[in-house]
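EI: anyone free to look at a 174-residue chain?
SC: sure, send it
EI:
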Amino acid sequence: LLFNLHLANKEISEETEFLLVEGQLDAIRCWEMGFRTVVAPQGTAFKDSQALLLFRSRPQGVVCLLDGDAAGQKAALSYVSIFLKTGLDARFAELPKGTDPDQILMGEGSIAMQKIIDDAVAAMAAFSSNEEHVLAKQQAEARAKEDAKFADKARKQQEMRDAIEESRRMQNDM
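SC: here you go
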C-alpha cells in the first residue's frame, strides 16, 4: 500500500509525476501545501509491489523527495533497482543535509520545495555523481593513509639516525 495513493491518483496523468516521500507526515504536509501527487510507502521500505501500483497509474515518472540524511541516501540507492525493474522514470531531489520535506515546506515554503523538485536529476546521474564523490573520498583517505605511513617511516629513520649519532658520541667520549 501507498499512503495517499487514492488521492494522488486523481491528480496524476502522463504529464505529471508522483512525488515519493519517506513518511506520512511529509506526505500530509506536501498535500496541504499543494503538492497533490504525493505518496509515501506504508511500512518501513519502498517495495517492488508499491512501484507497480505507481506504474499502473501511468505517470510521467516519480520524483523522490527523500530526507537529506544518510538513511534517505541509503533508501534512494535501494529505490533505483526497483524503478528500473518496473520501468518507471525516476528523478531524485537533493534535500539539504539533515532536512526533510516537512521542514522545508514549513521553513521555506512551497516555492523552495518546487525549486528542489525542478532541480531533481535522473537516477543514474544522481548516483553516478554520488559514486564519484564516494570514490574521491576513498582516494583521499587512501592518500592520507599513505602519507601517514610515509611520515611514520621518515620519523623512524630519523630516530635511527639520531640513535646512531648518539652512539657515535658515546664512543668518542670513551
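EI: The beta strands are 2-3, 17-21, 38-41, 61-65, 90-92, 121-122.
SC: 👍
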